[in-house]
Amino acid sequence: MESLNEASVPRPLLTLDHIPVGGFAEIEAVVEGDAESLILYREGDTVRAWLNVCPHAGRRLDWAPGEFLRSKDGLLVCAVHGASFELNGGGCVAGPCRGEALRAVPVVVRDGAVFLL
Ligand code: FES
């Protein structure tokens, strides 16, 4: 029987009720050994996560910690120069880094909490 080692055990980031449905949260987490700020986006009971690093100039996307801009058509908008990202794959669809993408971070929702994989 295979035993679980520490690296294979998911680590909880926060509970789902800390993210509004259709909204965002920001959280600090260690990803691949580095402390990173993450964007969490909740859609129903699923959550997607990306590094909070804009591919344009490497700045955070939120205008204040955890405060993200959203366009009328539902895009995530970087507060620095206005790059706009779709919320399925995190691709930039308008603005100075059009064609690039946010870096996805694998997460899973389990027992009402979000876990980093
Ligand atoms: S740093 Fe995000 S658009 Fe420039």
UniProtKB/TrEMBL annotation:
Matches recorded under InterPro entries: Rieske_2Fe-2S, Rieske_2Fe-2S_sf
GO MF term set: 2 iron, 2 sulfur cluster binding; metal ion binding
CDD domains: Rieske (cd03467)
Keywords (A to Z) from UniProt: 2Fe-2S, Iron, Iron-sulfur, Metal-binding
Pfam family, one: Rieske
SUPFAM superfamilies: ISP domain
Residues of the Rieske domain: 11-116
Superkingdom of the organism of origin: Bacteria
Name of the molecule in the record: Nitrite reductase/ring-hydroxylating ferredoxin subunit
Organism this protein belongs to: Aerolutibacter ruishenii
Lineage: Bacteria, Pseudomonadati, Pseudomonadota, Gammaproteobacteria, Lysobacterales
